[in-house]
Specification:
This protein is mainly beta. It folds into two domains: about 5-205, OB fold (Dihydrolipoamide Acetyltransferase, E2P), CATH 2.40.50.140; about 225-275, Ribosomal protein L2, domain 3, CATH 4.10.950. Helices cover about 5% and strands about 25% of the residues. It has helices at about 10-15, 210-215, and strands at about 5, 15-20, 35, 60-65, 75-80, 90-95, 100-105, 115, 130-135, 145, 145-150, 155, 165-170, 175-180, 185-190, 190-195, 275. The strands form five sheets. A seven-stranded antiparallel β-sheet has the order 9-16-10-13-14-15-17, with no helix packed on it. Strands 7-6-5-8 form a four-stranded antiparallel β-sheet, with no helix packed on it. The longest helix is centred in the last third of the chain and has 6 residues, at about 210-215.
């Protein structure tokens, strides 16, 4: 993948830096693996807005991605790398050798057309990008993605563009992973993970360039609290330009925000976190 920049012919493209999609080898999705998505506009079942600043956006179809990789020892050939509007990384269309069934998986950095990938529990499986194995069968120091949190539930960790976790230790029934956030965490050694780092590594260097591109994504503009009236926001009011005044930033409903920790104290999974991402 490369980052595409433009000549500053308009204000909208002057600072824009977007993906050039050079890694794509297939440009039309597999129709049998598509499902419709109904937009909610941020509204719940009663029609009330519960998530602000959502609405509009381009029509999209959901791609059914296989996060579980439960077809064991059945090799599959990569037919193409595709764009998925529902996630930041790319997806790969694979076809299983036994019955020609097609499926989508997350596309690691090194995966290309014609490669053969397999999901296995055996020690003989190759340690190469795209293969899915239990953590107990993966060598220490290997970069992995799409990591299960519970056995058989499918991958939950390290699924966005450019991310991977590193397997750093195996202790009894648990493997220790260094997560993309630098957190050190224990995961059951029978949980499955996929080898390799996900593609689109430069995703975070992209620049939207103009507000309209966010509208294409279904994200509407947002007004700051400090420019509102006191009736509309706790930060509002004052003569001319004024700071927020409130010693701690809050939401329009008075709840702490901007860095406020919301994780439940004494959560059941705390015992599996060996080192937090924050000091």
């Amino acid at each position: 993948m490369g980052i595409k920049r433009f000549k500053p012919t308009t204000p909208g493209v002057r600072h824009a830096a977007i993906c050039d999609f050079s890694e794509l080898t297939k440009h039309k999705p597999e129709k049998s693996l598509l499902e419709p998505i109904k937009k909610s506009g941020g509204r719940n079942v009663y029609g009330r807005v519960t998530s602000r600043h959502r609405g509009g956006g381009h029509k999209q179809m959901y791609r059914i991605v296989d996060f579980k990789r439960i077809r064991l020892d059945d090799p599959a050939t990569v037919l193409g790398i595709e764009y998925d509007p529902n996630r930041t990384c790319r997806i790969a269309l694979i076809e299983y050798k036994s019955d020609k069934l097609k499926s989508y998986i997350l596309a690691p950095l090194e995966l290309k057309d014609g490669d053969v990938v397999v999901s296995s529990n055996s020690d003989s499986a190759d340690i190469k990008a795209g293969n899915a194995l239990p953590l107990g069968k993966i060598p220490l120091g290997t970069a992995v993605h799409n990591i299960e949190l519970k056995v058989g539930k499918g991958g939950k960790f390290a699924r966005s563009a450019g991310t991977s976790a590193q397997l750093v230790a195996k202790e009894g029934d648990y493997a220790v992973l260094r997560m993309p956030s630098s957190e050190m965490r224990q995961v059951a050694i029978n949980c499955r993970a996929t080898i390799g780092q996900l593609g689109v590594v430069e995703h975070e260097t992209q620049s939207i360039g103009k507000a309209g591109r966010n509208r294409w994504k279904g994200m509407r503009g947002q007004s700051r609290g400090v420019v509102m009236n006191p009736v509309d926001h706790p930060h509002g009011g004052g003569e001319g330009k004024t700071p927020q005044g409130n010693p701690h930033p809050v939401t329009p409903w008075g709840k702490p925000t901007k860095g406020y920790k919301t994780r439940t104290p004494g959560k059941y999974s705390d015992k599996y976190i060996l080192k937090r991402r924050t000091k």
